[in-house]
Amino acid sequence: MTIRSSLVAVSLSACVAMLGLDACAADAVNAAAPPVPGAAADDGPAYGPELQGFNYPAPVRQFEFTSQGEALHMAYMDIAPEHPNGRTVVLLHGKNFCGATWESTIERLSAAGYRVIAPDQIGFCKSSKPQRYQFSFQQLARNTHALLESIGVKNATIVGHSTGGMLAVRYALMYPAQTQQLVLVNPIGLEDWKAKGVPSLSVDQWYERELKTTADGIRRYEQATYYSGQWRSDFEPWVQMLAGMYRGPGKKEVAWDSALLYDMIYTQPVVYEFGQLSMPTLLLIGQKDTTAIGKDAAPPEVRAKIGHYPELGKAAAKAIPHATLVEFAELGHAPQMQDPAAFHQALLDGLAAVPANH
C-alpha cells in the first residue's frame, strides 16, 4: 500500500494562523494563500511520537547506536535497484519532512539503477526523540556517517532538501572523501538569518509555538511556501504525517525536539563555508520559495530582505567552487513534490553528469 492510498484526504476551511513550522511564515503570507475547501481545523489521524501508524513506501529498518550517553535508534529505508549502476544516493529530509516524503524520488532513482538510502534523523519522524540531546549539524552528520558505515556504504551522492540541505553541506565538509557528489534541493541556510537581523527565540519560545501546531496551519503554510499557492490532494498525506504526531500521545516530546532543532538551525549557519566544498555540487532551486527561519518574528524591514531564493541560489552557485545551478521558475520550496517529472529529470541529468568512479 502506498502512502497516498493509506490515508483518507482531509480538507479544511478556516484560516488558522500558523505557528512553529519550517521558517514560521508570517500571518500575512498564510492569509494570502488561496483557500482550501473542507471541514474542521484539525481533523485527522493521530500517530505515535515515532510516527507509529504512518506507512512508509519501503520497509523501515533501525540503526541502533549510542550517542551522548543515550541508546538511540535511527530509522531508515535501504532500497536496492533491480539493475544496479554501482552508485548510492543518500536522501536527507528537511525539518517538516521525513524519509517517506522522498517517495517519488526513491522510485525514480531506484528505477534508474541507484541504491537509495533514506534515513529519518534523530529527533524526527520514526527515529528516537531524545529530550536532552545536544543537537548539532555535526552530530547529525556523524550519526548519518555511522549509519552508512554500518551498511557498507563507503561513497555516495548526498542529496539534502530544506534543513537536510544544511545537513548535507555539513556532511560533505566533514566527509569529503566519502561524498561523491552533493545535491542541494531548495536548501535553507543559503543566508545567515541572525546576521540579517532575525531576532533570537529561546527554546522555550519555540516549544510554545510548536504546541500550537494544527493541520490547517501546516496546510496553509505549505500551500503558500512549498507549492507556490497550489494545492492538490496528493499533498495532503504530508500534512497529516506532521499533524498526526501533534495529535498523538507524544505531542510534547515531538514539540520539544522540534524546538531544539529550530535552535540548531538558527544558530549554526553553513553559508560561510561554501567555498570549502570540493565535490561537484548540483543546486536545484524552486524560484517561488520564500522560506526563512523566524521570518514572522522579524520586523518588516528584515522580513523584506530574507528568503529571496532567486538571489540566494545564484549567490550559492558563485560561492561553491564546482556548482551547477538549475532553476525552476514556477516552483516553491518542495520542487520534488510539486512537479516530480521536471524535478526528477533535472536530478537524473545532474547525477549522470558525474562518473560512477568520480
- Separation of termini? 37 Å
The figure for the number of domains is: 1
Helix and strand string, N-terminal first?
A: HHEEEHEHEHEHHHHEHHEHH
Query: CATH-wise, what's the superfamily?
Result: Alpha/Beta hydrolase fold, catalytic domain
Protein name: 2-hydroxy-6-oxo-6-phenylhexa-2,4-dienoate hydrolase
Domain AB hydrolase-1: 88-340
Signal peptide: 1-25
Keywords: Hydrolase, Signal
Quickly list its features.
alpha/beta; eight-stranded mixed β-sheet; disordered N terminus; Rossmann fold; hydrolase; 13 helices; 35% helix; signal; 358 residues; AB_hydrolase_1; 8 strands
Structural account:
- This protein is an alpha/beta fold and 358 residues long.
- It has a single domain (3-352), classed as Rossmann fold (3-Layer(aba) Sandwich).
- It has helices at 3-6, 27-32, 103-111, 137-150, 163-174, 203-210, 215-225, 236-247, 251-267, 300-303, 309-319, 335-338, 340-352; strands spanning 61-67, 70-79, 88-92, 115-119, 156-161, 179-185, 281-286, 323-328.
- Strands 1-2-4-3-5-6-7-8 form an 8-stranded mixed beta sheet, sandwiched between helices.
- The longest helix is centred in the C-terminal third of the chain and has 17 residues, at 251-267.
- The two termini are 37 Å apart.
- Mean pLDDT is 91; it is low at 1-39.
